[in-house]
Amino acid sequence: MKTILLFIFTFFFFCGQAADKVYYTEADRAVFDRYLSTMLTDKSLPTGELMVKTARFFLGVPYVAATLEKEPEGLVINLREMDCMTLVENTVALTRTLQSASPSFDMFCKTLQSLRYRNGEIDDYTSRLHYTTDWIFENEQRGFLKDVTHGIGGVSLPVSVSFMSTHPDSYKPLKENPSLVAKIASKEKEISARPYYYIPESEIDKLASGIKEGDIVCFVTTIKGLDISHVGVICRVGEKLTFVHASTTQKKVIVNEAPLQEYVEGIKRNSGIMVVRPQANH
């Protein structure tokens, strides 16, 4: 079938409210249908196993950044091209959809919106969960995720996010709508006031027994004003602890060749990791 390049605008009713705008193509719907037919017999597997199988389903998919930047702000469904965060979001949303009694494309859309937007509602650009630590916090409150970093042995991590409000020209919606910058800055203060934990890069192998397949690994950055620079889905290849991710260097979704600790130590601006565990959809 020839891919339709124009975005389809469709509307749903979420939680009894007026629907939000959704962007997708027929090709995205076809990928979802193929995923469901491939994975349906595995739906009773533990959540961690489903996360890994789902992430691996996208091996070879091209790395493409900024696929969510559509105007007006709306839910973007893109299963053909991914960056590191959209791979993780799609993997969680698909896994939760698969675990439901009656998986459907509409349910996937609803779940993805709940993951990506504060309170699952789209107001404007600022309602998207741009900072990964905020994404973790909000989705832990909703019961979708659990930050297990502290329990594994993580230590306190000061977080001070400010990058978006101090670099508004780097974000088209902020550049064109200065009134949104104050909303972002207010949220940044709230995010920075929360307690966080991380596993320092030198401690990853030592604490590896607490890291499970299907966990989400979040790479802590030392770049001023940012929290997390990259994310992936933990997997094991033999005895090697590694991860599936949308690689900026390989330009596609891969199983990382280097072990997790070696990878982190090889990235100059990484200081360690956070570990987040997806929760079953019961």
TrEMBL record:
Signal sequence, start to end: 1-18
Domain of life: Bacteria
UniProt keyword terms in alphabetical order: Signal
Pfam families xrefs: AmiA-like
InterPro entries: AmiA-like, Papain-like_cys_pep_sf
Listed name of the protein: DUF1460 domain-containing protein
Organism: Parabacteroides gordonii MS-1 = DSM 23371
UniProt lineage: Bacteria, Pseudomonadati, Bacteroidota, Bacteroidia, Bacteroidales
